[in-house]
Amino acid sequence: MSKLGTWFYKNVGARIDPFLMRATRGRLDSGFGLMPVLLMTARGRKSGAERKTQLLYFTDDGDPILMASSFGRAKHPAWYLNVKAADHVRLEARGRSGLYRGVETEGEERDRLYGLAQEIYWGYGIYQERAGGRRIPVLRMKRL
């Protein structure tokens, strides 16, 4: 949540987590396993290149839930735009993997899930404030 923490996860965690999570079958990441993190592989919507991103998540009715907070930046994160453009992405967590489709939540469901996310990580409230007028999207990932 701090500037140092944001810098670390953006510049260090993003580079080492894909290797660290693969080597430990998803049991360890740059956050030392303190928060539930998954590895998402998606095709870039413009480049077509495979992109790997580590993301904080939680589950609701067995579905992974992702927050497109981008640390509270004014723009949506690239991974979110890639998920919206793709017919599927690969998610890996805790030694399991599968193909998923991202469904953006709306209305009461989005608000309920956002509230649950804040219980897991209270920084989401601060990210929403930092984001200015951008409403942070909440994605429900449906297994294919």
Beta-strand share of residues: 25-35%
The CATH topology annotation reads as Pnp Oxidase, Chain A
CATH H-level superfamily title: Electron Transport, Fmn-binding Protein, Chain A
Model regions low in confidence, pLDDT < 50 over at least 5 residues: none
Overall tally of structural domains? 1
Order of strands, main sheet, comes to 1-2-3-6-5-4
Give the class-level CATH name: Mainly Beta
Can you describe this structure?
- By secondary structure, the protein is α+β, with helices and mostly antiparallel strands.
- The protein has a single domain, classed as Pnp Oxidase, Chain A.
- It has 4 helices and 6 strands.
- The protein has helices spanning 3-23, 78-85, 107-120, 123-130, and strands spanning 37-43, 50-60, 63-67, 89-93, 96-104, 138-143.
- It has a 6-stranded antiparallel beta barrel with strand order 1-2-3-6-5-4.
- Strand 2 and strand 3 form a beta hairpin.
Give descriptors for this structure.
single chain, 144 residues, Pnp Oxidase, Chain A, six-stranded antiparallel β-barrel, 30% strand, globular
